[in-house]
Amino acid sequence: MAGDVRDRMVQSAVVLLAKKGVQATSFSEVLEASGAPRGSLYHHFPGGKDELIAAAVDLAGDGAIALLDGLEGRPNAEILDEFLAMWRSVLNRSQFSAGCSVLAVTIAPSSPALLDHAATVFRAWRGRLSELLRAGGLAEADARRFATTVVAASEGAVVLSRAEQNFEAFDLVSDDLRAQLASFA
Predict the structure, then answer these.
(1) Half-sphere exposure of 155 (CA within 13 A, CB side)
(2) Which residues contact 127 (CB under 8 A, 6 or more apart)?
(3) What is the pLDDT confidence band of residue 1, given thresholds at 50, 70 and 90?
(4) CA-CA-CA-CA torsion for 133, 71, 158, 18, nearest 10 degrees?
(5) Coil, helix or strand for 25?
(6) Domains in the chain: how many in total?
(7) Average pLDDT, integer, range 102-106
(8) b/e per residue, 102-124, with b = 16+ CB within 10 A?
(9) Structural domain of residue 116, as residue ranges?
(10) From CA 179, how far away is CA 166, in angstroms rounded?
(11) CB 128 within 8 A of CB 121
């Protein structure tokens, strides 16, 4: 039961980070969104807001890794399309009001430790994506470079789509990434 409360708080923090960023995400909002009792805050997160944000970054990061793990053995074009579909779904479900919780931590980090935490998650995404692309036939250097491009470009495309409130930039970036992947063949 206590784990459920903690899990709900972390899940709520992921959503709030994706929508509002670190600075605008308060403990009060997390409690309200999760339905958790006020006393549970420091019980589950004795390290305060940074501990909660770190747990949210881990959850968001693990979600993307789980998606990538489920794509093992699939063709590189499918891996790319599924990774992009994940971000398109975030934008669609939120009606362009949410982006990446991990990216949110980098915009106005409340601590160097959280910035390092976000960097670790991004490195994990790039690393796992690179492994999958190598298994799909890309040379190691190409896989590393393209994985970094995919993560950076998709994050930027999400930001532009949120700002413009449409998929135009996202679709243009997606098309360019597909063309770049095809050029490796």
Answers:
(1) 19
(2) 147
(3) very low
(4) -130
(5) coil
(6) 1
(7) 94
(8) bbbbbeebeeeebeebbeebbee
(9) 2-183
(10) 22
(11) no
pTM higher than 0.90, yes or no?
yes
Q: Rounded distance, CA 119 to CA 113, Å?
A: 10
Residue 48: strand, helix, or coil: coil
The token duo for 79 is 């891996």
Who contacts 2 (Cβ-Cβ below 8 Å, separation ≥6)?
40, 43, 44
- Length of the chain in terms of residues written: 185
CATH code of the domain in which 89 resides: 1.10.357.10
Lowest mean pLDDT: which of 79-88, 101-110, 122-131? 101-110
Q: Match 């990446």 to its residue by tokens.
A: 100
Instruction: Write out the two tokens for 132.
Output: 């999958």
H-helix segments, the chain: 2-20, 27-34, 40-44, 49-69, 76-93, 101-107, 112-135, 140-164, 168-183
Q: What is the pLDDT of residue 31?
A: 80
- Among 49, 64, 60, which residue's Cα sits nearest to residue 14? 60
Residue 23's pLDDT is what? Answer: 84
The per-residue pLDDT for range 27-61, each reduced to its tens digit, is 788 888 888 887 777 788 888 888 989 999 999 99
